[in-house]
């Protein structure tokens, strides 16, 4: 089954989206208030962490997105009981964790990479874990070599099977000294979720320090883990023999907040994003202001708006935290098509994250892609012929078109492009958006977008 078909099955009715195509009549500014809940990139990992506890865990502010449904399904096939508490609250009881068959894991996983992060917790609980062949993703190869090397360093035995990978732990995993070649978010989470119950100390150098990772560390500390974060990307973990469940309110979704901020700017609108906080958006807010966007920070959220006048071009390089997040560039690029002059976006996290640009060009944008590093600092993709820099010349008015959504963030940028465009756009494969944007159809309605849905 291809990744899009798997995603379509993993999304849909359970998160309130049955339509596959959205017809957007563009040209209206988005105005009003929407709220964001917990971050997809923390909530899904926090759900996995519940396996490590010997008592139930409670997570609040869980968004109704299909990636959460995918992890819920994966927990359930592994014997974890998941129940709904108050609205936005999930309770996980891991007292009967059991092995699952590769085929069931594969069926629940969609194209999600989450099964990799089950490995450490399952090796501790059961002594074995399986990773199915992970679905392809259109933002580059997305290898799992760091994950497998890290698990092997803890003492796991990695065995390649025709249908995936089997890992086993003949004895208790042992703490170790790890140095990541790149500050990978997933590999850092892998180390955290594996080291907390390993015997002895673990030192991780070259760690990712994204806010979602810090919140995962908060959760693990609540469970009884001993973790310190030193300067220069070094994380130290002292293994303990058992952990209990946690009760936690998830960090807000800064990627969703930044997406709606760019939507406000591109449509010349005014959106209050309830739940957004300044600290985790510091770098985004600087660029937003340089482009000509305005924002007011309140205790309960941030108002993002187009204050009038011309938008200005910028040079942006995506980077690991505290840099400009890779997931922020796609929606921003739509706003940059409206800026007066030449903007440059240098993508340094993923080697192929400009697939979404083709549709924007079809809609009238002037964007050229390059394999050279066009930012101020050369990145690891510069000598490898990956098309990873974009030059956006504006302003170019966009016109409606028939487009197909390729991936989550690129897809959201297509929605924004259609909302700003003159005329009607037909945007298909829209189900993918519900992987990471809770109730986005309702939110578009609340913000005054003019659209209809087609099954
Ligand atoms: C997480 O992906 C997020 N996903 C991504 O969000 C996000 O863009 C990314 O971190 C960067 O912030 C989730 O949290 C579910 P990485 P992850 O490991 O952990 C290379 C979204 O739309 N690498 O930090 O998979 C990799 O190819 C998404 O919400 C290896 O080479 O990202 C990439 O170039 C998409 N080998 C770089 O590291 C490995 O074993 C960073 O990836 C692992 C990664």
Task: Describe the 3D structure.
By secondary structure, the protein is α+β, with helices and mostly antiparallel strands. The protein has two domains: 6-36 and 252-454, Enolpyruvate transferase domain (UDP-n-acetylglucosamine1-carboxyvinyl-transferase, Chain, Alpha-beta prism), CATH 3.65.10; 40-249, Enolpyruvate transferase domain (UDP-n-acetylglucosamine1-carboxyvinyl-transferase, Chain). The protein contains 14 helices and 23 strands. A four-stranded mixed sheet has the order 21-22-1-23, covered by helices on one side. The chain is globular and about 65 Å long. Residues 40-41, 44, 113, 140, 142-147, 182, 184-187, 208, 210, 255, 326-327, 349-350, 408-409, 436 line the site of ligand EPZ.
